[in-house]
Each structure stands twice: as structure tokens, then as C-alpha cells.
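User: I want to check something. If I give you two sequences, will you return the structure for each one separately, not as a complex?

Assistant: Yes, each is folded on its own. Here is the first sequence with its structure:
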Amino acid sequence: MFCPFCRHPDSRVVDSRTSDDGTSIRRRRQCPNCGRRFSTTETASLNVVKRNGVLEPFSRDKIISGVRKACQGRPVTDGDLAVLAQKVEEAVRASGASQIEANDIGLAILPPLRDLDEVAYLRFASVYQAFDSLEDFEASIGQLREEHTSRPRPTRSVDE
């Protein structure tokens, strides 16, 4: 790491700390030549392989904008979308890969979106799971209904 002050080609790490969200490391460094200190931030890069083969950096904003289209007219807030994008990024980074296919990101969006809003989920799934017919929609709706009936219902207290 070059010193930003004297351009010496080496530095010594004095302190390292992870960021609050755990996605980056802040390092405090000292130059052995001039003795001045400076900070660096290190993050693991994650690139998305688009359908045409082009690589681009992963972006939560692109997830939010893509899911926002599916959520139009639904009771979903910007905060909800930010949390969803964070969950997707955590799931994608947990794979340990430095590159991921764009379609795999779309598929990673589906589970948290289903939990957030089922109508938006169906809209989004129709694109990423390539629904071709009404039967595809019916099968997905049937699966959602099955999940609803298999979930235990919350018990109500006598006071309610």
C-alpha cells in the first residue's frame, strides 16, 4: 500500500476493524518512511455477469429499482426494499463467489420478496422463472396457498 503523503511503496497495519455491517474492513496504517498515519477501507468485490457476458459491480440500487417495478401499487416502503436488497446481498455473498450470474441474483430475490409481498413476488417470479402460460401462474398461486394452509395459525387469547 503506497503512502498517500510520501508515496513510499510500503506501510504497516496498526489497527484493523470490521465495519458495522461486516462488509468491509477499516485498516489504520503507518508509513515507515515518513511516519504519518492514514486509513484504508477494504471490501470484497462482487461482480455480476450479465446475460451478454459483460461484468459489472454488484449494486443494491439495481436490486431495489428492479423490485420496485414489481411492487408498484403495493404497500411496500423504501425501507422494506432496502432490507430486501441487504438480504439478497448477504445471500449472494454467502456463496463465496466473486462473480455471480444476473439470473442467479433474480432467483435470490424471490424468497425474501415472497415474505414481503406475495403479489409482487408473483409479478417478479413471472419474469425470472419464465412463466409461459396461465398454468404457470396457477401452479405458483397453488404453492402459495398450500404454504398458507400448512402454516400454524397464531392463537388468540381469550381477552381479544
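And separately, the second sequence with its own structure:
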Amino acid sequence: MSITLTPAAKQQMQRALLRRGKGEGVRIGIRSTGCSGLSYHIEYADHIEDNERIFTEDELKVIIPEKDLPFLDGMQVDYRQEGINTRFVFENPHAKAQCGCGESFTV
């Protein structure tokens, strides 16, 4: 099982944690929501639960709930700037379709 961050995504997450001044790492998971059924969720992780897996990218801890691993295995996370907008972009090999707005997906 693996999750990969591009250098831009890793740098953005590290900067955000540094500015915040605390946290174990960044948690990435999925939620049931949106037009297509599932959406990605990123948040600061102040603690790590027993039912979570830790992936380390150059000292950055990426924490994934075990229940979400089958949906996220092999995913690459990028951070892109498009004009004045910035966002994380998820390249997920398990996603079969995305909604028109790109906010949710289905497997």
C-alpha cells in the first residue's frame, strides 16, 4: 500500500504544518458526500489513532485511516497553481468517474 506526494504537495503540507506550529502530520481520507458519492478530505493530525497507517515522505507524516486505504492505495497527491487559484489534485487509480466540478468521485 502506498500514497505518493509530488514535491509541490509535500512542500505545501510541510509549510502549512510549520506555520501552524503543531501537529503530528497531515491526515488524508475520504468522506461520503458530493454528486459522485465520495470526496477527499485533508486535515491536520494532532494525534494518530490506532486504526491509522502512517506513510513518511521526507519527515512529513501522511496519516491514512485504515478503512480508506483500499480506496486510496496507489494515489498521487499534487499541489497546483492555476492562475490565482491553488489546490491539491488527487490522481487516484481506483476512481472510476468524477463529478463535473471535480469535487467528488466514485469507485
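Because they were folded independently, the notes below concern the second chain alone. The chain has a mean pLDDT of 86. Helices lie at 7-20, 69-72.
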